RNA sequence: GCGAUCGUAGCUCAGUUGGUUAGAGCGCCGGUUUGUGGUACCGGAGGUCGGGGGUUCGAGACCCCUCGAUCGCCCCA
């Protein structure tokens, strides 16, 4: 017999276990609770879509589309793609499922996303996000509500300390276009002194030069044209309404005028909740307004705003969420008592208390295993003088609950 | 796609300038001790030192290749 080689897990996937899985679940549970407080409706979305859903909405030239998508042809020869984000699929559903009748529509979801990237701290090829969107709402109050929900979520997760909300506006389409043109002219003039990466960005996405980490670029970034110089009156009013709304709601924020979005469909509000506790991955939650998206999918002009947050990143910030110890350890110190112990195990669980059975390995060491498990209370079964001897090690209240539960059964 | 660091038992790690039969702790299994008890002791299973090639009398250690992981760049949650 030749040795069978164990298949390795796929790069960038995670097997989340134990305390990590508890932290993950805590993030999702907290999100579910908070989104109900804000009356966001739950949606479940397909994990894959036609490739064009993402290709059109994200823009063909973006890195996500050009090199980071998990795309494949199905048996009918159609190109499908594992979703790299939620927004495009939700926008597609809004158009194909008649959700326009519910506008303004507030929806929330969570689940796995896929991007073919190099894994590193807080970045995976299959990762998980929570997501919230408001579709069909043009007013800045929608942005404010979304940000308030994000702020409350982070507070209820207990990760708000050290996380700051960075806020910017990209203006409307006109503002953004003229800003972009000014940036292009400005950086073009000093092209030779920019980093190689930024010279490349000049062609593809000049806005991105603004958040370059290269010191050679940062000198020029400081004096680069600011979006504020190009905002139309409407865009300025919109941003003013968002910031005053946040102030009224008591949500702390900082203006970061170099904050831009990688994807083309963003307009007006852009924001990120940022921490310095996750290495190179500072963004814990990010989003913005994407008024241009629906049209790129062939739909009517539809204002929308949303955000998403990486569950793994949030889970890494969450502290003090571990696995619970059992309420009871049920110990079989003599195999002849297995039946009795099994009955007790069921009775305890039916009474709403958690219990774990210790009935394997050396009988003499089972009690020690139960003690080491950290269970709050222990009930053990042994044979003494031909009869079953039950011993309870518990606080008075717990012991009484146990005896009650056993009588009920 | 690029760069840096790192791969020794199930886990966390020792392993000297290259030198006998590769070790410890934890965990697991068995035994002795204890018996409202988290104790102590004894024993056992478990390793092609990530894989391949090279240098050398001799490689876990040095060199090359390869695979994998981690962190960073690009980009992004």
UniProtKB/TrEMBL annotation:
Molecular-function GO terms, alphabetical: ATP binding; histidine-tRNA ligase activity
GO cellular component, one term: cytoplasm
Compartmental location: Cytoplasm
Catalysed reaction, written as an equation: tRNA(His) + L-histidine + ATP = L-histidyl-tRNA(His) + AMP + diphosphate + H(+)
Limits of the Aminoacyl-transfer RNA synthetases class-II family profile domain: 1-318
Domain of life: Bacteria
Stored InterPro entries: aa-tRNA-synth_II (IPR006195), aa-tRNA-synth_II/BPL/LPL (IPR045864), His-tRNA-ligase (IPR015807), HisRS-like_core (IPR041715), HisRS/HisZ (IPR004516)
SUPFAM superfamilies from the UniProt entry: Class II aaRS and biotin synthetases
Annotated EC: 6.1.1.21
Residue numbers binding L-histidine: 85-87, 115, 129, 133, 261, 265-266
Biological process, per Gene Ontology: histidyl-tRNA aminoacylation
Pfam hit, one: tRNA-synt_His
Keyword terms, alphabetized: Aminoacyl-tRNA synthetase, ATP-binding, Cytoplasm, Ligase, Nucleotide-binding, Protein biosynthesis
Primary localization: cytoplasm
The protein's assembly and partners: Homodimer.
PANTHER family for this protein: HISTIDINE--TRNA LIGASE, MITOCHONDRIAL-RELATED (PTHR43707:SF1), HISTIDYL-TRNA SYNTHETASE (PTHR43707)
Family: Belongs to the class-II aminoacyl-tRNA synthetase family.
Name this polypeptide is given: Histidine--tRNA ligase
Species, as recorded: Alteraurantiacibacter aquimixticola
Gene that specifies this protein: hisS
């Amino acid at each position: 017999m030749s040795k069978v080689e164990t298949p390795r897990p796929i790069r960038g996937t995670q097997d989340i276990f134990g305390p990590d899985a508890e932290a993950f679940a805590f993030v999702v549970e907290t999100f579910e609770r908070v989104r109900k407080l804000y009356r966001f409706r739950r949606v479940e979305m397909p994990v894959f879509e036609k490739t064009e859903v993402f290709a059109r909405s994200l823009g063909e030239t973006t890195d996500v589309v050009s090199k980071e998508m998990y795309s494949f042809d199905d048996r009918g020869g159609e190109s499908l793609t594992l979703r790299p984000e939620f927004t495009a699929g939700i926008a597609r559903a809004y158009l194909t499922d008649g959700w326009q009748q519910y506008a303004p529509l507030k929806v929330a979801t969570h689940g796995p996303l896929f991007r073919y990237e190099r894994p590193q701290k807080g970045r995976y090829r299959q990762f998980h996000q929570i997501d919230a969107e408001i579709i069909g709402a043009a007013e800045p109050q929608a942005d404010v509500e979304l940000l308030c929900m994000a702020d409350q979520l982070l507070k209820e997760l207990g990760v708000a300390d050290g996380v700051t909300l960075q806020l910017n506006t990209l203006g409307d389409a006109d503002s953004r276009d003229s800003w972009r043109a000014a940036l292009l002219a400005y950086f073009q003039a000093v092209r030779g002194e920019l980093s190689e990466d930024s010279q490349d960005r000049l062609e593809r996405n000049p806005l991105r030069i603004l958040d370059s980490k290269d010191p050679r670029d940062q000198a020029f970034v400081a004096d680069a044209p600011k979006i504020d110089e190009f905002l139309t009156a409407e865009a300025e009013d919109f941003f003013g309404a968002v910031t005053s709304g946040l102030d009224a709601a008591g949500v702390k924020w900082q203006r970061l005028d170099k904050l831009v979005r990688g994807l083309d469909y963003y307009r007006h509000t852009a924001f990120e909740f940022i921490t310095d506790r996750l290495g190179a991955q500072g963004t814990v939650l990010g989003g913005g307004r994407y008024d241009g998206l629906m049209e790129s999918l062939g739909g009517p002009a539809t204002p929308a705003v949303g955000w998403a947050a990486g569950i793994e990143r949030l889970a890494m910030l969450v502290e003090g969420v571990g696995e619970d110890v059992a309420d009871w350890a049920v110990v079989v110190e003599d195999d002849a008592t297995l039946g009795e112990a099994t009955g007790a195990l069921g009775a305890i669980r039916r009474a709403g208390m958690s219990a774990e059975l210790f009935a394997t390995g050396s009988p003499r060491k089972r009690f020690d295993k139960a003690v080491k498990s950290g269970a709050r209370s222990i009930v053990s079964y042994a044979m003494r003088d031909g009869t079953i001897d039950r011993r309870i090690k518990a606080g008075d209240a717990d012991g009484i609950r146990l005896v009650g539960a056993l009588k009920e059964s």
